[in-house]
Amino acid sequence: MGYTIAEKILLAHTDKKEIKPGEFIEARLDLALGNDITAPLAIAEFKKAGFTKVFDRERIVLVPDHFAPAKDLRSANQCKVLADFAKEQSLKNYFEIGCMGIEHALLPEQGLVKPGDLVIGADSHTCTYGALGCYSTGVGSTDLARGFVDGKCWFKVPPSVKFIYKGKLAKWVGGKDLILFTIGKIGVDGAIYKVMEFGGPVIRRLGMDDRFSMSNMAIEAGGRAGIIEPDEVTWEYVKQSQKEKVQVRSQKFKIRSRCPL
Description:
By secondary structure, the chain is of the alpha/beta class.
């Protein structure tokens, strides 16, 4: 049976022998992401349910990038919830102010997401990492809380729609233009609960920044994910991000393992 990229990744994270679109599956996660808007809700549900220990302190990422720097006390408290939980659970991937940036740029740069991974994030633009050839999708805070508990999540296997881009881009035209044009053609509801798979010669000539821009906006058409098949451009980016991570660690900067709490 021929599977799409998304189906191959989802299947590989289950114990099933086959899956099909529309089927509900329980799958193992490689990473669970939360920010200062959504993670406090997940943390509250995690504790409310009586759990005291996360499934893996290395596979949960918390990034306070919406309310930080805080504009008022309520915003500051949202960020503090993340810091307190990260300290309590000894999370390796908590990124404090001064050691972070926009979460969806940060995770790829730090080598936290890789081709073939299954990633959830309580943020709709988690689909960004599909540019690396992983299945990454936004979920609700309660789904994230469940991910904290046992590193698993329920998914409805989505159908995929493949978009092939041919020809040559005009000067100054990039990935953002391509995805806006595409959404303009199919509409903001054109990919509801579907995977948008981007391919073709134009995509293969795009750099990673343009690819991230395209995958990031799959949700703007209702898509569950925006995936690009990994190629030499992808692997060179992954190789470089891993190399830089090792270099920073060797200099004793606390990057993946956050700033001092």
